[in-house]
Design goal:
The structure holds 2 protein chains of 2 kinds. By secondary structure, chain A is mainly beta. Chain A contains no helices and 11 strands. In chain A, the strands form 2 sheets. In chain A, strands 2, 4, 5, 6, 9, 10 and 11 form a 7-stranded mixed sheet that branches. By secondary structure, chain B is mainly β. The chains are: A mainly beta, B mainly beta.
């Protein structure tokens, strides 16, 4: 079974802090994704990566950056957290892009105060 | 433009009732893929089904069934004899070869005992 894990289920940070959200998958998937989920807005893609050290902006990349130094690990970085980044963050992975399912981690609920 | 609509924001049923979740998509492409995911209160999106645009055969898996109709651009999901454990947010998604997913806004299903 594919397993996607995220470093924290709940996280509370202060405005201005640098925040790292870590995601690890164990199925040798090429593609990894970061989404944020907000009530009424569904899932919105922040960044994705189709290979090590490769990254592409999604629909809402502003205020975020990512890092993929190893195939199994994809990190989301909030350089200076703000209250409007309070959200549920979901990581996903897939073998290829588009035509197959993505597998999701359990999510990290981030609160920025 | 690619778009997924789930017109039902919230549905509430009593246990053992049948319930259908609607999904309508928009695309001009002839090759595409459709998915359903379940997000229980724990937060993790769970993959339920994948369908490609050339396969209009309906699918049944236990109490779950899916009706794919290209003529109406719909991919509806029916739960027969609903149970409390079916309570979740359900997402429909659309994708294409080499491209990212387009998620619908989700339908929150509450099954009352």
């Amino acid at each position: 079974d594919v397993k996607v894990t995220q470093s924290s289920r709940y996280l509370v940070k202060r405005t201005g802090e640098k925040v790292f959200l870590e995601c690890v998958q164990d199925m040798d998937h090429e593609n990894m994704f970061w989404y944020r989920q907000d009530p009424g807005l569904g899932l919105r893609l922040i960044y994705f990566s189709y290979d090590v050290k490769m990254k592409e902006k999604g629909d809402i990349p502003e205020g975020y950056s990512v890092s993929r130094e190893k195939k199994e690990r994809f990190s989301l970085i909030l350089e200076s957290a703000s209250t409007n980044q309070t959200s549920m963050y979901l990581c996903a992975s897939s073998l290829v892009t588009g035509e197959v399912e993505q597998y999701f981690g359990p999510g990290t609920r981030l609160t920025v105060t | 433009a690619q778009k997924v609509t789930q017109a039902q924001t919230e549905i509430s049923v009593v246990e053992k009732e049948d319930v259908t979740l609607d999904c309508v998509y928009e695309t001009r492409d002839t090759t595409y893929y459709l998915f359903w995911y379940k997000q229980p209160p724990s937060g993790e999106l769970v993959f339920l089904i994948r369908r490609n645009s050339f396969d209009e055969q309906n699918e049944i898996s236990g109490r779950y069934s899916w009706n794919f109709q290209k003529s109406t651009s719909s991919f509806n999901f029916t739960i027969t004899a609903s149970q409390v454990v079916d309570s979740a947010v359900y997402f429909c998604a659309l994708s294409f070869y080499g491209q990212n997913f387009v998620f619908g806004p989700g339908t929150r299903l509450s099954v009352l005992p």
